[in-house]
Amino acid sequence: xxxxxxxxxxxxxxxxxxxxxxxxxxxxxxxxxxxxxxxxxxxxxxxxxxxxxxxxxxxxxxxxxxxxxxxxxxxxxxxxxxxxxxxxxxxxxxxxxxxxxxxxxxxxxxxxxxxxxxxxxxxxxxxxxxxxxxxxxxxxxxxxxxxxxxxxxxxxxxxxxxxxxxxxxxxxxxxxxxxxxxxxxxxxxxxxxxxxxxxxxxxxxxxxxxxxxxxxxxxxxxxxxxxxxx
Length: 230
Prior knowledge:
single chain, Four Helix Bundle (Hemerythrin (Met), subunit A), 3 strands, about 70% helix
């Protein structure tokens, strides 16, 4: 399996430069499959500066900010690297995400508007075709994580959303690794539909249960089938 490369676009210098560089670099890291066996997690300052069309100073500021957020590790005389968690740490991330998302689904049943809930059904249009998903697994993975982020937003709890955002990059990467194979994608599609139906019915107890089970399925799959080098 070929690792997804870091994808960057030039930064518009007319806006606050350091913030735009940070956002561009963070987005590029999200797009990486940095848990792939052949993934290159080193972030080369010179190349990043050239591709973004900026000096190395805002690159260093962005990397420092990402280090504070626990997404990047800066080593003296070696450079910066995207942090890869151990398999046990990934399982802990999945566990915590599951707790947050299941709570968000309960809160969403209680507080979200009908239009907000209807948005999940609209997203499902792009998530219900197993064959299409297998044909473009990277796009499906992106849509899949957006679906789960939408459930987080339904909870209308800023603290919950902030906590989930801190786990987002690793959840995105590990879901991309796990969604390889017909059975896993088909199971994901069915789970999504049942979750949507429970939230549409505002059955908070069932929605919370289904979201938790869906996350537990991911943890079981990662534990058994996904190899992560420590």
